[in-house]
Amino acid sequence: MRREVPGSTRYAAGGNHEMTIIITAFDRSPDGGKGLARDTRVRWALEEVGQPYEVRPVSFRAMKEPAHLALHPFGQIPTYEEGDLALFETGAIVFHIADRHAGLLPVDANSRARAITWMFAALNTVEPPILEYANAKLLEGDKPWHAERLPLVEDRVRARLDQLSARLGGGDWLDGAFSAGDLLMASVLLRVKSSGILDGFTNLAAYLARGEARPAYKRAFEAQRAANTSTIKH
Ligand SMILES: N[C@@H](CCC(=O)N[C@@H](CS)C(=O)NCC(=O)O)C(=O)O
Question: What is the Å distance from ligand 1's center to 7 Cα?
Answer without folding.
Answer: 21
